[in-house]
Structures are given as structure tokens and as C-alpha cells.
Prior knowledge:
The chain is mainly α and about 110 residues long. The chain has one domain (about 1-80): Winged helix-like DNA-binding domain superfamily/Winged helix DNA-binding domain (Arc Repressor Mutant, subunit A), CATH 1.10.10. Helices cover about 45% and strands about 0% of the residues. The chain is built from 4 helices and no strands. The protein has helices at about 1-15, 25-35, 40-50, 80-90. Helix 1 (about 1-15) crosses helix 3 (about 40-50). The chain starts with a helix and ends in an 18-residue tail after the last helix. The relative contact order is 0.16.
Amino acid sequence: MFQQVARKIRARILSGELAPGEFLPPEKTLAYDLDVSVWVIGAALEELRRQGYIAPSTPGRRARVAEQVEPVRVPLQHPADRWSSLLTSTGRSPSTQRSERCSHPTS
């Protein structure tokens, strides 16, 4: 879902509807306008920051379009990829193996 939202916001930036240096609407407003949760908006904006369309900002401040927007082909990052990165950073490795359920012996 956040990938679709990121594409919509990126299209607004590339069309000039959102100009370089311009502040984006507040996340709650974007969420209402695009009929998604604030979490989805946050994930989409983080992806656009990673791609260079949104300027880095401090927490609690509104997102701003980067001053120089140059389209960059970067694959969208899925939340599961971030989870894998987090596991790797703690010395663990992600796995696709399923753990077996505990079975309780019948009396």
C-alpha cells in the first residue's frame, strides 16, 4: 500500500504540483486525502526520503520536497526488508523456515 502512496506523491513532485523546497501537507491531511492511515503515509515519505525526493528532516517537522529532485531508480523497500535489516544488525539472520507448533499430548 505504501508503494502506491509513494508513487502518487512522487508523481505530484515530478509534475511540479509540489515544487522543490515546498512543504508537503501534514501527514494527517495526506492520510485523509489519500484515504490511508498515517502509518502508510509515514512509510511512503520515508521511502521517498530514501530515494531523494523528500529532504531529510527532524522528527516532528513537516516533510519538504528536496531542493533538487533528480529521478532515481531505487526499488521500493518492503517493510519485511527493514525487519531483515534489523535482525541482521543484531547478529541474527532472517529465515524463511517455519517453526513447528508445539503439540500438547492428549491424556
